[in-house]
Amino acid sequence: MIKGPVLTLAGKHQTDYDQNRENRLDGKTVAITGATDGIGLATAIECAQRGSHLILLSRNQEKMISTKQLIEKKVNDVEIDMFRLDLADLNSVKSAADYLIKNGFKINILVLNAGLAYYSPELLYGINSVINHFSHFLLLHLLVDHLVGSEQEPARVVSLASEAHILANGSGKFWKTYESEKIAAEILGTGSDISGAYAESKLANILHMKSMAERHPLIKFVSVHPGVVDTSFADKWKSGIGNKCSLCLVRMLSFCWKPCVRSPAQGCQTSIYCICEREIIQGEYYADNKPKSIRIRGSKDLTVIKNELYELSIAFVKRFLVPK
User: Fold this and answer.
1) Cα angle, residue 311 at apex, residues 307 and 317 outer, rounded to 5°
2) Would the pTM count as exceeding 0.90?
3) Sheet harboring 53-58: ordered strands across?
4) 305 contacts 172 by C-beta, under 8 angstroms
5) How many CB atoms lie within 10 A of CB 38?
6) Which string of b and e fits 86-122 if b means at least 16 CB within 10 Å?
7) By the 8 A CB rule, do 322 and 28 touch?
8) How far apart are CA 136 and CA 85, in angstroms?
9) Residue 321 DSSP class
10) Which helix (H) or strand (E) holds 56?
């Protein structure tokens, strides 16, 4: 366990995975949340180039249409389906999952890619926790028994996490439900502190995959750190900093980060590795195509945190679940 906020940022000169695309996805269906921009879009393009059928899951219908057209220009004879899924709305998540199940879509690989780094203080608790963890928890819980695989080629779930998890302590305060926004604000605070809601949500992504790996051993579950990637993902977080700090400081931080920043095509490489590579390790957290240790602030046991998170998550989404 680490004691302080030491964050190692993976550089951009990572070796690309399987540049000749010898590991194919022909005949497989890959469903991706947040596939209309950034790492999600790069992941979708790479999967299509390897022969997969794509299912795009996003809240913005117009962007999905544009994304479909973009991929079709890059890849001949690609099959793409699109469904609206708004991760800020659990009802939307339930509707999308129900539609996929009722219409017999056979998903081999599910990529839980979408997320956010910052929202305005009044929405920090609700939106960040729901989008970055609870909605993906619900989506996977609804779809897990319908994922398609075999003993030789098991179904896979890849969750986009972050090395920012090392700033979390697993206290669980960002995962709990409060009686009012006022009470939540008093306990959680407000603002754009990355060691708060975002770091805890990224720890949740990692531990979620470990929990599912224990409960569904015939499916491969992994989480990945993409590195620091140049996308629109953190725009609201940057604007949040700008509200509290001088523009000069924001520019200085951006300049310091620049040598470490990857393109989306580089940032998706570990996701692609975990999607395609045969011998991935069940429940592991990967960075730069290799397993990486999990470290958090403080001394709380990760198994305890993992079990607490699972129970809190089930309680949060239980009204959308049908008893088995």
Assistant:
1) 140
2) no
3) 80-84, 53-58, 29-33, 109-112, 156-160, 220-225, 285-287, 290-291
4) yes
5) 23
6) bbeebebbbbbbeebeeeebebbbbbbbbbbbbbeee
7) no
8) 11
9) P
10) strand 53-58
Rounded (10°) CA dihedral 274, 115, 244, 164: -30
Phi and psi of 287, rounded to 5°?
-145, 135
Asked whether the beta carbons of 174 and 129 are under 8 A apart, the reply is: yes
Contact (CB, 8 A) for 163 and 7: yes
Cβ-based neighbours of 149, under 8 Å, separated by 6 or more: 108, 155, 156, 218, 219
Euclidean distance between CA atoms 287 and 165, whole angstroms: 13
Three-class SS of residue 225? strand
Per-residue pLDDT 10s for the chain (324 aa) are: 333 333 344 444 455 899 999 999 999 999 999 999 999 999 999 999 999 999 999 999 999 999 999 999 999 999 999 999 999 899 999 999 999 999 999 999 999 998 765 444 444 444 556 778 899 999 999 999 999 999 999 999 999 999 988 988 888 777 777 776 677 677 776 554 545 778 888 999 999 999 999 999 999 999 999 977 665 544 544 444 444 444 454 444 455 555 567 888 998 999 999 999 999 999 999 999 999 999 998 889 999 999 999 999 999 899 999 765
- CA-based torsion, 211, 202, 132, 65: positive or negative: negative
C-alpha dist (Å) from residue 182 to 127, 179, 247: 15, 8, 30
Provide the b/e sequence for 131-144 (b: ≥16 CB within 10 Å): bbbbbbbbbbbbbb
Tokens read off for 46: 């790479």
- DSSP string covering 80-126: EEEEE--TT-HHHHHHHHHHHHHTT---SEEEE----S---GGGHHH
Phi first, then psi: what are they for 266, rounded to 5°?
Answer: -75, -40
* Domains located in the chain, CATH noted: 29-316 (3.40.50.720)
